[in-house]
Structures are given as C-alpha cells and as structure tokens.
Amino acid sequence: LDKERLAAALEKQRRAAKESVETDERKRKFNSLKANEEDVTEEDMEAFRLVKPRAEDPMAAMRRAAAAGGGGAGGYDLLD
Predict the structure, then answer these.
(1) Domain count, the chain
(2) N or C: which terminal CB in the chain sees fewer CB atoms within 10 Å?
(3) Are 12 and 46 in contact (CB under 8 A)?
C-alpha cells in the first residue's frame, strides 16, 4: 500500500464523515446511480478499516472508561 495514497484516502474518509454530519437531510439529493461512478481502491478499503468503530473490541470499552476517569469495574474498586 502506498502511504501517500492511504493518507489521502484517510482524509477523504474523515471529510466524508464530517460532511455527512453537517448535511441537512431535507437538502440532500438522491443519487442512486452515483454509487457505481467510482472504483474503490485498496487504500480506500484500508482507510475504511482503520476509521470504522469496532463494537466487538473489548479493549476499546476499557480504554474509553479509563479515559473518562472511570475504572474498568464500573466505578467500583476491586478488593485484594
């Protein structure tokens, strides 16, 4: 994988996510044929894989809890 193309694909993913949040649904156009307009590259697939959230990742929940100041035990201290 080309690192420059991967960085560009990551930026494209982030920009698309930001635009989808900012877009008003009432003003969004229906483009059913636009989906087949562009080929997906290996770098695009890798960028999607890196950006997408993983619900099945057990360590992600622990990292979020630790970052929020809570422990991994739901706020309870473990006894020795």
Answers:
(1) 1
(2) C
(3) no
